[in-house]
Write a structure and sequence with these properties.
FAD/NAD(P)-binding domain, 3 domains, alpha/beta, Enolase-like, domain 1, seven-stranded mixed β-sheet, single chain, 468 residues
Length: 468
């Protein structure tokens, strides 16, 4: 075997966390290699997650709007037809644009893409096996582990991507299911369930917990449940999946609810019951790498592991399994290696559900603050009272603040409504600086915009709401 090629930083994994860490480390003047075995960079998010799902979400939103809402705007459209093959082809093209963009950024920043499956060995040595079986080695003065996560399978319902799908298979269906069962009422299940419902499928959501979107603010959950049911999702909460029969032409899902057995028949089922850290190429026991209770790599707020000069970022470290969290952790790791005094702020990691209306949250829920015993106030403002939302015909939902009763510091913000994934950014910025509801309330917001709903909710939190 040849002498290992040496780098200042070697990143294991080319997903959002890994490729951003690679680029930032290169910007800081380090020699950088990123080891990735997939044919394209970008990881789950770019290839089979965030990007393709949002492409289909956008396309399906246009299709449903034309069918159901164009006439309200005085637009008559006859014979609206679905061309699923073209829609899927557009999705593939969008993904390709993004993956090629990451490759361009690697070339621009002189990041070396080492193509192959990487295995971390003692002393920060990574053995890389290429697709043709060739083995090379790269040595890193520092290593950043960014191996991501994989979907959780039910033991009695393994993925075959023909009838039983993970998020990967559910994004690639060549025809609209007659009946799609979604096991899991979380983000992935509701987003992909919404796609296929809009395109004509009957969609049944089965959730073991008492509500969908478990862990979200109670007001958000109630509003979302009401809206999604009205849209046509058949939602069954408090329902446990206990078995399944998979046939050539469909699937039967067996459940228990309130002590009774109930079964559902469908032609396809999406299993979206969570994801788990993927320690691919990382033998934690052999390396002495410390793990957390759920098998995630244990790190501090600078992304350091217990191994010398080994960092970990993204889904493999647990917490919120979100691309933007992984990206920011990648930046933190690279900058810590460069000696910068940076830390990761997990409390201000936002989360977005890209259903329609969207759901966007940051910080603590009202029930969390209440349980802590901390005195608090809330402020809430509906989109139905916002001029821009009325002009759009998008009046469902609200913005809600949870603030400290004495200091007025923003403890959490929870939104459901049009484009709230974008509206949340100003609240995240305010929370990064431990800002108050008053800070947002006295900031001038353009009129007429959806952002005025955020301002009015902040005004409500300090008892000064104007337009309600």
């Amino acid at each position: 075997m040849t002498t290992p090629q040496t780098f200042d930083v070697v990143v294991l994994g080319g997903g959002p966390g890994g490729y951003v860490a690679s680029i930032r480390a290169a910007q800081l003047g380090f020699s950088v290699a990123c080891v990735e075995s997939d044919a394209t960079l970008g990881g789950t998010c770019v290839n089979v997650g965030c990007i393709p799902s949002k492409a289909l979400l956008s396309s399906s939103e246009h299709y449903e709007w034309l069918r159901l809402h164009a006439a309200e705007h005085g637009i008559t459209v006859d014979n609206v037809r679905l061309d699923l093959a073209t829609m899927q082809a557009r999705k593939v093209d969008v993904v390709a644009q993004n993956t090629k963009g990451v490759e361009f950024l690697f070339r621009k920043n002189k990041v070396t893409w080492v193509k192959g499956f990487g295995t971390l060995q003692a002393g920060n040595l990574i053995e890389v096996r290429a697709n043709d079986g060739t083995i090379t080695q790269v040595q890193g003065a520092h290593v950043i582990l960014a191996t991501g996560s994989v979907p959780v399978q039910l033991p009695f319902l393994p993925f075959d991507e023909k009838r039983v799908h993970s998020n990967v298979g559910a994004l690639q269906l060549s025809e609209v299911p007659k009946h799609l069962i979604v096991i899991g009422g979380g983000v992935i299940g509701l987003e992909l369930g919404s796609v296929w419902r809009r395109l004509g499928a009957k969609v049944t959501v089965i959730e073991f917990a008492p509500t969908i979107l478990i862990g979200n603010d109670d007001d958000i959950v109630r509003e979302a449940d009401k809206i999604f049911r009205k849209q046509g999702l058949d939602i069954h909460v408090g329902t446990k999946v206990v078995g399944a029969d998979v046939r050539e032409d469909g699937v039967t899902i067996h459940c228990e609810r309130n002590g009774e057995r109930v079964s559902f028949d469908a032609d396809h089922v999406l299993v979206s019951v969570g994801r788990k850290p993927a320690l691919r190429g990382v033998d934690a026991a052999a390396l002495g790498l410390a793990l957390g209770a759920r098998g995630e790599i244990a790190v501090d707020d600078q992304q350091r592991t217990n191994l010398p000069q080994v960092f970990a970022i993204g889904d493999v470290t647990g917490g919120k399994l979100l691309a933007h969290k992984a990206e920011e952790e990648g930046v933190v790791a690279a900058e810590v290696i460069a000696g910068k005094p940076v830390h990761m702020h997990q409390h201000t990691v936002p989360g977005v559900v890209y259903t329609w209306p969207e759901i966007a949250t940051v910080g603590h829920t009202e029930q969390e603050v209440k349980a802590s015993g901390r005195a608090y106030r809330t402020g809430k403002f509906p989109f139905s009272a916002n001029g821009r939302a009325r002009t759009m015909g998008e009046t469902s939902g609200f913005v809600k603040f949870v603030v400290d009763a004495e200091s007025d510091e923003i403890l959490g913000c929870h939104m459901i409504g049009p484009n709230v994934g974008d509206l949340l950014a100003e609240v995240v910025l305010a929370m990064e600086y431990r800002g108050s509801a008053e800070d947002i309330a006295i900031t001038i917001h353009s009129h007429p915009t959806l952002s005025e709903t955020t301002k009015e909710a902040a005004l409500a939190a300090i008892g000064r709401v104007l337009h309600m």
